[in-house]
Amino acid sequence: MNAFRPVAAAAWSLAVMAVTAAVQLGYSDYYLRQTTGSGMSLRSAHAAAVNGDLVAISGVIAMAAGLLALFTIVLEHNVPLAVQFPPDSDRRNLLRWLGITLAAVAAMDGVMWLARGHIAGPPELERYRAAMSPVLPWFAAIVVTPLFDEALFRGFLLPPLAASAPGRSGAVAIAAVIPAVAHAYDDPWRLASLVVLGCLYGAARLGTGSLAIPFAMHVLANVLAMAATAWIR
Q1: Number of folded domains in the chain?
Q2: What's the domain range around 68?
Q3: What is the pLDDT of residues 28-59, one digit of tens each?
Q4: What is the enclosing helix (H) or strand (E) of 113?
Q5: CA angle 196, 181, 165 (to 5 degrees)
Q6: pLDDT 10s digits, 141-157
Q7: 127 near 50, Cβ under 8 Å?
Q8: Domain annotation covers residue 1
Q9: Residue 221, Cβ neighbours under 10 Å: how many?
């Protein structure tokens, strides 16, 4: 069941992304004013981007606001959350897709290691090293980010697009590229990796009809990424 038409789903998705970006920028500006006496600027943007605590805290707050906006939109249209974000999953399907995710991550990490000599990029390493505690970055990476990305891009946006002009393959690609660019615009290798993984999440969403499976895949991929970053540092 597609509760939203493609154009409406795309417009509402952009609105949710705008809310998320506005909250993250607003909190970052507030944080910088409290700690440095000046708000966001071109000069402070780089420092903010590699401040592990700021990135994690602002990300968690922003994505929580985005999820609240998304669920409000869905409920305002009288759509049960279980219909828009189906939780049902089959254990064998889950294990199969988790295995595919593990194999994909291993292959892409191997390619990155051979191509550039390391897996985690400089931005991730700098943010992780700058964090006072790893707890919040881990929480943001393995709980909040998968929940936000899968709810918005695979739960809300993907099904209406798949049933319209872009088709299933085009919809999977669109729903993979948008969050990948948002998360890894500063690292081409990581960007490519996230696009591949996003396509796998989308294929699992359409192939199984469940949102739980792509969410579990996303959690696994992020656990492996965070573990690699922690090990390398």
Answers
A1: 1
A2: 6-232
A3: 888 888 877 776 665 666 666 667 788 889 99
A4: helix 91-116
A5: 70
A6: 999 999 999 999 999 99
A7: yes
A8: no
A9: 25
